Every structure is written in C-alpha cells, then in structure tokens.
Amino acid sequence: MFPFAGSSYQGPSPRYAELRTCPQSVVKVPTAGGVDAWLVTEYADVRAAFADPRISRAAACGEGAPRVGGSMHTTPEMIISMDVVEHTRLRKLVAGSFTVRKIESMRPRVQEIVDELLDDMAAKGPSADLVQALALPLPLTVIGDLLGVPRQDLQSFERWARAFATVDDRAGGAASLEGLAKLSEYIVGLIADKRANPTDDMLSELIAARDNDDRLSEQELVTFGFTLIGAGFDTTANQLGNSVLALVEDHRDQWELLADKPELIPGAVEELLRHVNLFATDTTGFPRVAIEDLELGGAKIEAGDAVVIALASANRDANVFEDPDRLDVTRTDNPHISFGHGLHYCLGKTLGRIEMQVALEALIRRFPSLRLAVPASELPWHEGEINHTLTSLPVTWDA
C-alpha cells in the first residue's frame, strides 16, 4: 500500500530499492486513496515523467481526479497545479526576481541574518533548539524580505503554512483547508495594504502586474502570494534542520571533514540535498494524471491513470550515483533531482542553496562541537505533513 512504511529523513522506504530491481521500472501500486497509481522509481524514468506534458499536474487537481492519499491539498490556481501554458505565464512574472545574479546579490543579507541568529544562539548557550534558533527563522526572514511580508507577521504565517502542509486524509483534510483559508485571508489583507502603500518587493510587483497589465486574476494573485511564501521557507527550514541532524548524529565524520575543509560546503549542500530525504512519502507530494495514453519504463499508462513520481528513490539510483546510500560530502558527480525537473523545476533553487551554504558554513565554523542534547530517538517530529519536519532539534556545544 502506498505511501510505503519505513520512510525517514535518513532515506526512502526500503521498498523503493526492491522496486528498482524489477524488470519493469514503473509499477502499479494500490494507494491509501483507494485507487491504483503508477509509481515511477528510477532516475531516468523520473526525469522523463517530469518532462512529459502528457503527465499532468492540472488534471490531478480537477473534478473527479483520482486521489492517491499522502498528498497535500492544492487548488487549480496554484502554480504547482498548472500545466505548461498557464504555468509559463505565471512563472514569467517572477522569473526576473529569481535570476542567479539577483539571488546571488542577496548572499550578504543572508549572511547578516545568519550571523545575527547565531550571535543570539551563542549568547543564550551552550544549548539551543536549532529549529527555533536557525532553521526556521532564517528562511522565514529571507522570504519575508523578498516578498515584503512584515516581520511581525511571519510567525503567524508559519503556523498557517504548517497546517496547510498537513496530509492526514483521515481528518478529511480539515487542517489543510483551514490553513489554506487563513493564508488566503492574510494575503488579501496584505495585498490591500500594498496597493495603498507599494514598496520595492516581489508582491508589489505582482500587484502591479494584476492592476496595470491584467496578467493575473485576483484569485491567482492571492494564491501566488502565499504559495511563494510557503514554498520559500518550509522546504529550506526542513532541509536545513534535517541536514544538520544527519551530519551531527549519523555522519559525524562528514561534519568534522567540513570543519577542517569548509571549501567543501557547496558540494556538501548538493550531497545533502540528494541524500537527506525531505518528503515524507518519498515523492514530490503532488501526484499527476495521464491525459493521453503513453509508455514509460515499460509500463503502458492509460489516459486517466494516476502517476506518482518518487524523487527520493531516483536520488538513490545506483545506475546514476556510485554507492548511492552513502553520504559523501566530497562527491563531485551529483546530478541529483531534488529540485525536480522540467516545467516545475524549482524556481527558488538558487536561494535555497545560498541559505544552506551560508548557514552550514557559519554553524560549523562557530560551533564545531555541536551535537544532539537528547537521544535521536527522543526527537519530536510533526505528524501527517508532506515533509519530514522536526518539531525541535535540541543541540548543545562546548562553551
């Protein structure tokens, strides 16, 4: 039954390794949603599925679409729910704000935020909750700066976004829908404020695109606003927290290697993105539906069939990665697919990389003796979310 048991931040369910040995690499599995779905597990097939316009996100959000379970609620107006024409239209509106050059220019500000957070952590030490001290406030502050969200509102926004990310189907999606409603209500108010008092930020640019050029509907504007904020902090916060946990607890030799050779950190971030499993279902969390008959990985997929793409499995494919279950911060040949591929390739990939690089470098440099303050078995995790999300990460260090 999909989602499979056994997934953790340490890696995907062992079931994926078994499936990658099957003669047919795309297999049909029963799901918690009550329908069968085609599961894509091998790297080459995952890339092909992401790039194939016949495997549709929009169709998965339509009326009567098959529900596979283990996925968060999305609406047709969200960019992550759109196919090529509408997705391209919305993506173009913000692409200029996410160029490598523009995002790279934010690195000094990211460094400033990290230094302030770690100064505060050191002053209160020698122990801290790394989630609250660094992993969460860093991306929240950065995306707040980028989009013009007042800092005093960020904690409320984080709480609503956390609810929106809930995937517990047993509750009928009530928590997710409530979070979505709160996010929408907040963005409506923020848009009204920025219409009256525009500032130099991305949300003000989107409002201008709506009001002056009519390139956005009002609902698209509201939805795009909270989608960008939610996507801009939640994945980075979880990836950073889980990566530090992996280094200090499971792979201490790699932490110490980075302390000795900080020049390895950019490559280490890529390896952490590949190795540390972010998604609780080992997939993107966003199922797709075939809109035409097609063949993939030896499977004959029919129009209307559900398709689930397993990112974490692709990142452990031995056909692409040597010794794929080993975390190796010196790995150089690393074409991981953690940011997706094709149409929905992550818009914020450069920003996420910068935040990870700056945070890890400063953390390792300033707290080389950092370690868990409690046994790993006692760490609290959020239940029923799209991501593996630590509630807290108690750490300590030598004063």
From TrEMBL:
Cross-referenced SUPFAM superfamilies: Cytochrome P450 (SSF48264)
One Pfam short name: p450
InterPro entries reported in the protein's UniProt record: Cyt_P450, Cyt_P450_B, Cyt_P450_CS, Cyt_P450_sf
Alphabetical keyword list: Heme, Iron, Metal-binding, Monooxygenase, Oxidoreductase
PROSITE patterns associated with the record: CYTOCHROME_P450
The organism's place on the tree of life at top rank: Bacteria
Family: Belongs to the cytochrome P450 family.
Listed name of the protein: Cytochrome P450
Organism, scientific name: Streptacidiphilus cavernicola
